[in-house]
Specification:
The protein has 353 residues and is of the alpha/beta class. The chain is 43% helix and 14% strand. The protein folds into two domains: 112 residues, no CATH class; 219 residues, Rossmann fold. Strand 7 and strand 8 form a beta hairpin.
Length: 353
């Protein structure tokens, strides 16, 4: 994916922002997997290239857009356009389920107010039910070395809060664990020993209708969404105690206070920090690391090398340890496929600390 310099003020440098968005849309339209979004990204690229004004108005309605990565902005606009296309009855015909690229400019112009309201209110709330698998294994391995105290966990950008509720569910783990091939033998289920579960998300908390739209217009995503609904019905998941907290991850002092006040010793972020520009993402990661108690852990899972490819990178920071651990690469962001050991995989799984 083309790398663009972070724009401190997109409104003041519209041409630069358009260049970054165009590069992101073109790159995402060439994703090797097509589960419903590729043609929409291609249509967005054409619209930005040919008639950018209507879309740039929408872009600048996104709160804090100056902190956001171009690929995330393109994804959020695509979701909002697709949701509006469907909610107005135009996507009910299966033959026209996906928003046609040549409708984008007209839709963005005709429904500018509605789209601006959506973009000001919502975020990309896609939730993958297999993304808890790697944190489950790594957190259980890590905290087994620390004497069995209950672990309070905080999930960053939690969406509907499914990942933290899946953790420590043996039924959930055994349902999905076979979809991942690990470097050595497949790990067996081991409990982390979770105490309190928290998730931060900006208000409003997304409802299932919005989340469904984030999954995309295809039979593939229909199946994943049904899996998510089935997962929410698993007794262990349904019964898990969980608290939403309205908190912006960019409020670094507030994030530090939250970790301290809730006695959090494990933090997860699965496909949430990628939405920010690199400096903002790095600042959030550093703030979390500084706030961890000694022996606490922050696991970050982000697209790798970028959102235009299917894989993701898993990294970890340990409280009281300076360096970041690069643990593994997962071949598919929906956590079907293989886990490949990275630089610090052996150090973490066998000899750490």
């Amino acid at each position: 994916m083309t790398t663009c310099a972070r724009l401190e003020s997109p409104a003041a440098d519209g041409a630069g922002l358009r260049h970054c968005l165009l590069a992101a849309a073109r790159s995402m339209s060439e994703h090797p997997q097509d589960h419903g979004w590729r043609d929409i990204y291609s249509g967005l690229a054409n619209a930005i290239n040919e008639e950018p004004e209507s879309l740039m108005v929408l872009v600048n309605s996104i709160p804090g857009v100056q902190d956001l990565a171009p690929a995330y902005i393109i994804g959020l606009i695509a979701i909002s356009l697709q949701q509006l296309w469907h909610s107005n009855g135009r996507g009910e015909d299966p033959a026209y389920r996906r928003l046609p690229g040549d409708e984008i400019i007209g839709l963005a112009t005709e429904y500018r107010s509605e789209l601006s309201s959506i973009l000001a209110k919502y975020r990309n709330s896609f939730t993958g039910v297999r993304r808890f698998l790697v944190p489950q294994v790594l957190l259980a391995k890590h905290f087994a070395r620390y004497g069995g105290e209950l672990v309070n966990i905080l999930d960053i950008g939690t969406g509907i809060g499914i990942l933290p509720r899946q953790l420590d569910s043996q039924a959930c783990f055994e349902r999905f664990a076979g979809d991942l091939i690990w470097p050595a033998e497949s790990p067996v289920f081991a409990k982390i020993g979770i105490g309190d579960r928290f998730g931060i998300e900006l208000d409003p908390i997304p409802d299932l209708a919005w989340v469904h739209g984030c999954y995309g217009p295809s039979e593939y995503y229909d199946r994943l969404f049904q899996e998510m609904r089935d997962t929410l019905a698993i007794p262990e998941v349904r019964a898990a105690s969980f608290s939403f907290i309205s908190q912006d991850a960019r409020d670094l002092p507030g994030l530090a206070r939250l970790i301290a006040d809730k006695n959090v010793s494990a933090v997860t972020a699965a496909y949430s920090l990628y939405q920010y520009s690199p400096p903002v993402r790095q600042a959030i990661g550093a703030a979390i690391h500084r706030s961890l108690p000694r022996g606490g852990i922050f696991i970050d899972i982000e697209p790798h090398p970028a959102l235009d490819q299917p894989g993701c990178l898993v990294e970890a920071w340990i409280g009281g340890v300076d360096d970041k651990l690069t643990i593994c690469v997962v071949s598919d962001g929906h956590f079907r496929g293989s886990v490949t050991a990275a630089t610090d995989y052996d150090r973490f799984t066998r000899t750490w600390p």
